[in-house]
Amino acid sequence: MSTTSNSMTFNIRIWRQKNAQTPGKLVEYKLDGISPDMSFLEMLDQLNERLYAKGEEPVAFDHDCREGICGMCSLNVNGIPHGPDSQVTICQTHMRIFKDGQTITIEPWRSTAFPVIKDCVVNRSAFDRIIQAGGFVSVNTGGTPDANALPISKEIADLAMDAAACIGCGACVAACKNSSALLFVSAKASQLNLLPQGKAEKDRRVLKMVETMDAEGFGACTNTNSCEAVCPKGIPVTFIAQLNRDYAWAMLKGAAAEPKATVGGA
Amino acid sequence: MPLIKFLRSTVGLKIIMGLTGAALFAFTVIHMVGNLQIFLGQEALNNYAQMLHASDEVIWGFRLGLGAVAALHILCAVVLTIRNRAARGKESYAEYAAPGASLASRTMAVSGVIVAAFIIFHLLHFTTQTIDPSFKELTEIHKGAERHDVYAMVIKGFSVTWVSVFYIISVALVSFHLSHGIASCFRSMGLTNPAYREVQEWFGLAFAIIIFVGMAAVPAAVLLGLVKL
Questions:
Q1: Mutate which of B79, B95, B178, B205 to disrupt the A interface (most A C-beta within 10 Å)?
Q2: Is B8 helix (H, G, I), strand (E, B) or coil?
Q3: Contact A77, A105 (CB under 8 A)
Q4: What is the DSSP letter of A136?
């Protein structure tokens, strides 16, 4: 508890933008009395309370669980999505990792597919539309199947679980010089493609998700590894290679062709 | 049409970039091995050159094929670069750290343009011999027949200091492009998984260095007088 008495001072440069139509700019605020034990978002709460007390508009930023699992927080801090701490979201980052008196630059995710709504809040519904295109399995309702009826090796179960760790925050897009969404798309496709429950719709899923990803205006993957470096869940880029492979197979199989009525069929 | 869907998708275009990149890399390795025969002497290099030029049909088929592969690689790169720039958007970051990304990986378009410019110069220099037309007159008598003396041409070409220095800098940029490109080919073609990733990255880095050493060895050896007529 001894650290709580050391209060820190920061020079906060944060993106202020009234709405999508109005151009924004970085605004500087001097912020003192910050405890090193505060989370990054608690620091922003402090800033907002002071702005509110002065009758100014508080800074809008996305947040929900503040436990690093919901994927809502989305701040680019000093040029790095989710800040300098590796494999954590910005909500789980503490002020003690910054230097007293430091300037901290806070910007929203930047991508054509993620337009700014206000201040540091961006619209990430493009991700929802990619999920709607194929990030699901079709299951017949009925009794719960026996858990052991479908054998899955430990290696595959672990790999699918690694992919499923994606919280859909969009840091991969924010970090990528091309605003590519491939780490997200590959994780969301692979978590289902790897498992027997997801195999049936694998080809269609991969093609639909890639098609939607392109239509939403995300860029291509140039294998820079930036996405992997900032991913709060440490999802590896090897899933992107897996998606490329699955995409190539689906194409070779002709899965992208319009279905034709077969002889004697409906 | 599935093929049109494939050619429209960023993933499809990257698969083409990977395939064409791998083909261009394979050619670069063969080219390097061919060049190194200069160290076996005039007879060996000129025999090799004569063998390559033995059939017009074969060499022109090869040239056109290689040219088409290079054109496809460049075309996909241009299309993807335009799309990537548009995806990034008008508003850029005030601060951008490019975490985890190597310099080579972030500058592939720039190094690619420089490599392309170098290849054009190289073709005008040694293939069409437009830059120095006197190269065409370098011949030797071998087994009673006259043939082009490639050995003499290489030595004459690289005896000019600025040309040699320019070639060494250029092959350094080729290997810089390859230091990211080789491993990236595997990834784009979908041939990477957690077990192979590290091996492919080392393979890429190792071959980038091998290409630089092997390619720069020829102008360096001529400049240093290790290979002479």
A1: B95
A2: helix
A3: yes
A4: S
Nearest-CB residue to B100 (from A210, A225, A240)? A225
Give the strand pairing for A116-118 and A121-122.
Answer: antiparallel
**Look-up: residue for tokens 């110069």?**
B121
The answer to whether B89 contacts A112, with C-beta atoms less than 8 Å apart, is yes
**pLDDT > 80? residue B115:** yes
Contact A220 B186 (CB under 8 A): no
Question: Nearest C-alpha of chain B: how many angstroms from A145?
Answer: 31
- The structural domains of chain B, with segments of one domain joined by +, span 7-86+104-223
Q: Do B87 and A112 touch (CB under 8 A)?
A: yes
Per-residue model confidence as pLDDT tens digits over A160-216: 999 999 999 999 999 999 999 999 999 999 999 999 999 999 999 999 999 999 999
- CB-nearest to A79 from B5, B97, B102 is B97
Selected residue of A214, A231, A246 to mutate for chain B interface (largest B Cβ count, 10 A): A214
Which residue is listed with tokens 């809040």?
A: A121
Q: How many CB pairs under 8 A join A and B?
A: 165
User: What CATH number does domain B7-86+104-223 carry, 3.50.50.60, 1.20.1300.10, 3.40.50.880, 3.30.56.10?
Assistant: 1.20.1300.10
ipTM of the complex: 0.93
Chain segment A91-109, per-residue pLDDT in tens: 999 999 999 999 999 999 9
How far apart are the CA of A89 and the nearest CA of chain B, in angstroms? 15
What is the number of H-type helices and E-type strands within chain B? 9, 2
SS3 A160: helix
Q: Which fold has domain A125-252?
A: Fumarate Reductase Iron-sulfur Protein; Chain B, domain 2 (1.10.1060)
Give the residue among A93, A104, A94, A100 at the shortest CA–CA distance from A37.
A94
Query: Residue B145 is inside which H or E element, if any?
Result: strand B145-148
Residue B104 and residue A242: Cα distance in Å, rounded?
Answer: 23
**Whether A220 and B96 lie within 8 Å, measured CB to CB:** no
Query: How is chain A split into domains, by residue range?
Result: 2-117, 125-252
Contact A222 B92 (CB under 8 A): no
Indicate yes or no: CB of A226 within 8 angstroms of CB of B101.
yes
Q: Which residues of B touch A104 (CB under 8 A)?
A: none
Q: Report whether CATH 3.10.20.30 matches the domain A2-117.
A: yes
Distance CA B191, CA B127 (A): 35
